């Protein structure tokens, strides 16, 4: 395995002076390192973080097999207080809270968690996800069966705690990628059918993350996909498995537009970092072609169950498809302060 894929080391930016506090129950320090470390970056999610942690401590592995590292990315709400209370109430699980001095972004937060981890494997999920009990054990099993792989990942599906239907925005974003997510795929190069890498549901060999220098701090979105490009340069395959983790669905039109404008800006940056990777091309011509291709896909899928209730669903999906590609093109002209 190569020692590096990038001349810049993002881990080097994780200065200890930017870490406000490290909190854990000292009695839970382990003599032996855990097999797998779970890193959760969180920012102003005091209404969701306890649910995410409750799912993680309920994994069907022995308690000394894993640790949980929560990185509080400068939250201004009660996230820090809630995580500390949770740690005190769950003494049987090794949980560490790292609080950053200010909001530095999910990439910085995850890198801080990775550097503090003791596991051979690094599992990453989001603070708005609900990991099923077999989540970690399935990762370990997949690595055991696929020893050549440096990452194993799945995807996320929209979820509402109150049992309500996800918004049409979240439904569209899941449906849009579904044709590429139905089958297992193992590859050592970029492929639309290998969706391994989404930070809601992924596990890496820690050494691979160290070798490719961590997450890019300059990106607020698609930092997982930029990391994936560098992981591929290590020459080892990544494994995608069609396993979906529940993810809190809360998009509305304003959030949808702001998110995709930010993605457009970040894709522009990625295209400059990796000019030979056409996936992140957001030129007007490419965006127009993708909008037409996406619209064609929706029209061809009119017999899908999702469109059976009303034709307005299909028209709305076409509107969102055009909106996404317009945002991808326009995003490079804007700097959006949006997490």
Automatic annotation (TrEMBL):
<keyword id="KW-0812">Transmembrane</keyword>
<feature type="domain" description="Glycosyltransferase 2-like">
    <location>
        <begin position="37"/>
        <end position="179"/>
    </location>
</feature>
<feature type="transmembrane region" description="Helical">
    <location>
        <begin position="314"/>
        <end position="335"/>
    </location>
</feature>
<keyword id="KW-1133">Transmembrane helix</keyword>
<dbReference type="InterPro" id="IPR050834">
    <property type="entry name" value="Glycosyltransf_2"/>
</dbReference>
<dbReference type="InterPro" id="IPR001173">
    <property type="entry name" value="Glyco_trans_2-like"/>
</dbReference>
<dbReference type="Pfam" id="PF00535">
    <property type="entry name" value="Glycos_transf_2"/>
</dbReference>
<dbReference type="InterPro" id="IPR029044">
    <property type="entry name" value="Nucleotide-diphossugar_trans"/>
</dbReference>
<keyword id="KW-0472">Membrane</keyword>
<protein>
    <recommendedName>
        <fullName>Glycosyltransferase 2-like domain-containing protein</fullName>
    </recommendedName>
</protein>
